[in-house]
Amino acid sequence: MYQLARERVEKFHTVASDKRNRSLDLRTFRIALARQLIDKYFSRKKKPLPSSIQVKKSVVPDHERLASVGNHMPEIVSNYRRSTGTTVSRQIVYRRLRHIGLYARRPVRRVPFTATHCRLRLTWSREHALWTPQQWSCVMFSDESRFSLLSDSRRTLIWRAPGTRYHQENTIE
User: Fold this and answer.
1) Contact assessment for residue 170 and residue 108, using Cβ atoms and an 8 Å cutoff
2) Which of 34, 49, 102, 127 has the fewest CB atoms lying closer than 10 Å?
3) Spatial separation of the C-alpha atoms in residues 168 and 87, rounded to whole Å
4) What angle in degrees, to the nearest 10, is found between the helix axes of 73-84 and 90-99?
5) 159: closest CA among 102, 119, 111?
């Protein structure tokens, strides 16, 4: 298998310069070739890869196991450890999730409204629909922000893709 990789790299070097300019650069070619060899290895699982073309465990393409959207970091790490039998650091998991487009965000809190809540809110909004800006200036709104002097505010974060803030799996009640 290593010989095959060497032959492909040598073939790339022998390509005419005008074709080489239109093709991938050598580094991208080697990365693509390494990924192809790794994919072949994982599909067969017979012989280990030669040490000259092995990559770090954090680069191995099994991020599907990591990408359980909505889970908290400790859950993701323990699920990965249970499913693969290998221990990975939180930093590796964090980098892999960022690489596939997931980001740590606070989940949206959804207050479960009853029919009475809905009726009262509708009544209130109808009563105040025609208020002037001067009347509204006398009202103080609160967003109930939390303030913490410590760096760790113990907030729960979930992993989600951009644009999925209000999806059902990303909200908590």
Assistant:
1) yes
2) 127
3) 31
4) 100
5) 102
| Among candidate residues 166, 142, 146, 164, the one with its CA nearest the CA of residue 156 | 146
Amino acid at 163: G
Q: How far is CA 30 from CA 24, 39, 63, 125, 150, in A?
A: 10, 14, 21, 63, 46
Distances (CA, A) of 12 to 6, 42, 52, 53, 58: 10, 25, 19, 17, 28
Q: Which helix (H) or strand (E) holds 135?
A: helix 133-136
Residue 172 pairs in a beta bridge with 109
Residue range 13-26, pLDDT digits in tens: 665 444 555 544 55
Could you tell me where the beta strands, DSSP code E, fall in the chain? Answer: 103-105, 108-109, 158-160, 171-172
| DSSP conformation class of 49 | P
Residue 30 CA to residue 27 CA, distance in Å, equals 5
Res. 86 pLDDT band, cuts 50 70 90: confident
Structural element, H or E, at residue 9: helix 2-14
3-state secondary structure of 114: coil
152-163 residue pLDDT tens: 666 777 778 888
User: In angstroms, rounded to a whole number, what is the distance separating the alpha carbons of residues 119 and 26?
Assistant: 66
